[in-house]
Amino acid sequence: MSDYNITEIRPDDSQANGQLDALLKSESIRRDAHLDYSCGIFDENQELIATGSCFRNTLRCMAVRGDRRGEALMNDIITHLNEIQLFRGNTHIFLYTKNESAGFFSSLGFYEIVRIPGEIVFMENKRNGFSDYLKKLQDESIKTDGRTASIVMNANPFTLGHLALVEKASSENELVHLFIVSEDLSLVPYPVRLKLVKENCRKMKNICLHAAGPYIISNATFPSYFQKDEAAVIRSHALLDTEVFVKIANALHITSRYVGEEPRSLVTGIYNDVLKEKLPENGVQCTVIPRKRTDKGEIISASTVRTLIKNGDLSALRPLVPPATADYFFSPEAGPVIQRIKNSQDVIHY
Description:
With about 350 residues, the protein is α/β, with parallel strands linked by helices. It has helices at about 15-25, 75-90, 100-105, 130-140, 160-170, 190-200, 230-250, 265-280, 300-310, 325-330, 335-345, and strands at about 5-10, 35-40, 50-55, 60-65, 95, 110-115, 120-125, 150-155, 175-180, 205-210, 255-260, 285-290. Helix 4 (about 130-140) crosses helix 7 (about 230-250) and helix 9 (about 300-310) packs across helix 11 (about 335-345).
């Protein structure tokens, strides 16, 4: 342990935040957009010499000034952030780090989940965390020797496009593992998204629903602080997700993954390109389904649905969503979600 105290860096402390940004920049790290706690170690001249941050149950943006390495400052930062996580009630903690730093974090009790060579390593503080997750998926799965596929979706909210994708996979396979992104950062909360998926897909008996859990990571929480630009962030996210998914596919004997064509979204377009490139290299087919369109030829997307809700045009929803989704948004139960969408500045998925 060092002789320095660790201080919280509050959002309204402009001087400390300026030093934080400068320290991260000196280590080729950008401040992540999603941070809910930051701390630092300051020297006797009130200069920031080490820092680290959290977002939910992840550790992020950790750095030590170059001339102060070897003083166990990062050990102190990690210990402090772990204490913050325990205070929050989080015992399962994750972090993302550069490849060259993974060995150091291993010495502090973190275990590698997947690695993207030259880019990023995804780690957790539980030795058997990921293997226990795979075992849980196996235990809740339907057993079959037939063709097995998978879909991963956010369903924010569930549209006729989502339904067409599920129906296609269901008709071509004995079993479909349908993973719903369970991080609750979408405008439509996870319990509502899960409910709408269940109601809209209940007639298909070969669907096995899973909460994606902490390993299938959403765009909202994937770290961006190691990559030089947005395209690099998206590609790293897709590569990491592919590595995680291949391990899931091996555990569940999944031989194909179905994805929707995305002519509008830069994020999903790059993501799909990576899946099409990397999944077949690992024995998993990637099947891209053309985007569902309305009778007028307009592309159906969850972004369009959210835009209509934000603009108060609920009457235009029915050609875009299945009955259970429409019924929900016309019910009093949807009031808080509709207000949340209306209050949001950005409802488009780019």
